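User: Please predict the structure of the protein below. I'd like the answer in structure-token form so I can feed it into my own downstream comparison script.

Assistant: Understood. Taking the following sequence of 121 residues as input:
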Amino acid sequence: MYKILVADDEKALRMLVKGTLEIGNYNIIEAENGIDVLYMVATEKPDLIILDVMMPGMTGYEVCEEIKSKDEFKDTKILILTAKGQQTDKEKAKKVMADYYLSKPFSPAKLLSVVEEILGE
């Protein structure tokens, strides 16, 4: 069973993502800020991180860059999930080596499809 870390400062969105992904029989863990994400990556070693950009403490871009810069975690898959949908935002996600980018609002079916694609299911 794949372990997925859902990181967003909005509890309602974390619950929506968690509810959607539990249909796919994934083990879901949650974080509400960038500092918690870094701690949980080291302790929980998730297969995929679904990462909001606008969070307190550290942005999702900063968190992504930090994770991908470490040899131990550079292969951890990261999906940037954000309300920021401009081309420059997508380029920034690519620059910090995010594996995928999905703009809000999104359909639960699309999210599940993207997660399955990232995890190779």
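That's the full token string. The chain has a mean pLDDT of 91.
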